[in-house]
Amino acid sequence: MVQRFDQKTGKFQQNYIVPVEENDEVSVMDLLEYIYQNLDDSLAFFHHAACRQAACGKCGMRINGKTGLSCKVKADCDEINLEPVNDKIVRDLVCH
């Protein structure tokens, strides 16, 4: 489940199903990229070329109720809930 946010419509939740092989190690960022590329290109989340180094912290979000970096947190359960890291939401999972 991804908590989405749009300035015009407000908050709403959206569910996505992402196929992951049983032994694959994927990050939350991998899931978001799959969603964006294959299911919904309107999903907003922070990503850039230097991601996966946990250097900037801009891909931070609440992942299953805990704050973490989507480029580093492993997607290791069947259901993942994603929410913005704070209430200064620009759009979807992107915050100031």
From TrEMBL:
Q: Which organism is it from?
A: Blautia liquoris
Describe the family membership recorded for this protein in Swiss-Prot or TrEMBL.
Belongs to the succinate dehydrogenase/fumarate reductase iron-sulfur protein family.
Give one GO biological process term: aerobic respiration
Q: What is this protein called?
A: Succinate dehydogenase/fumarate reductase N-terminal domain-containing protein
Q: Which Pfam families match?
A: Fer2_3
**Cofactor(s) it depends on:** [3Fe-4S] cluster; [2Fe-2S] cluster
* GO MF terms, alphabetically ordered: electron transfer activity; iron-sulfur cluster binding
Which residue intervals define the domain Succinate dehydogenase/fumarate reductase N-terminal in the entry?
Answer: 2-95
InterPro entries hit by this protein = 2Fe-2S_ferredoxin-like_sf (IPR036010), Beta-grasp_dom_sf (IPR012675), SDH/FRD_Iron-Sulfur (IPR050573), Succ_DH/fum_Rdtase_N (IPR025192)
